[in-house]
Amino acid sequence: MASRCYSSEGSTGSGFSRPAGEAAGDAFTKREKAAEDFYVRQQEKTKLLQLKEKLKQQRKHLDDLDAHIDELTKEQGGEKN
């Protein structure tokens, strides 16, 4: 069975590639973080647009039900119009 060796501080991509252990990271790490952040924002934007569309459909359905209730009430003579 092979054992895994994990990199330690100072390895490329570890976020500690600068002297004195500064957590600034290298260019690859920064680019990767930016790409991940962009992906997350795009996914959230897509979900929000889907929710907005679903809300729009629900509002239309409620308006249709409201109109139907008004129509039934008028047919039964419940309102004095």
UniProtKB/TrEMBL annotation:
Function: Inhibits the enzyme activity of ATPase.
Subcellular location: Mitochondrion
Record's keyword terms, sorted: Coiled coil, Mitochondrion, Transit peptide
Transit peptide found in the keyword field: yes
UniProt feature, compositional bias: Polar residues: 1-15
Top-rank lineage group of the source organism: Eukaryota
InterPro entries per the UniProt record, alphabetical: ATPase_inhibitor_mt
Protein name: ATPase inhibitor, mitochondrial
Coiled coil: 41-75
Pfam families: IATP
Region (Disordered): 1-28
Broad class of the protein's primary localization: mitochondrion
Similarity remark: Belongs to the ATPase inhibitor family.
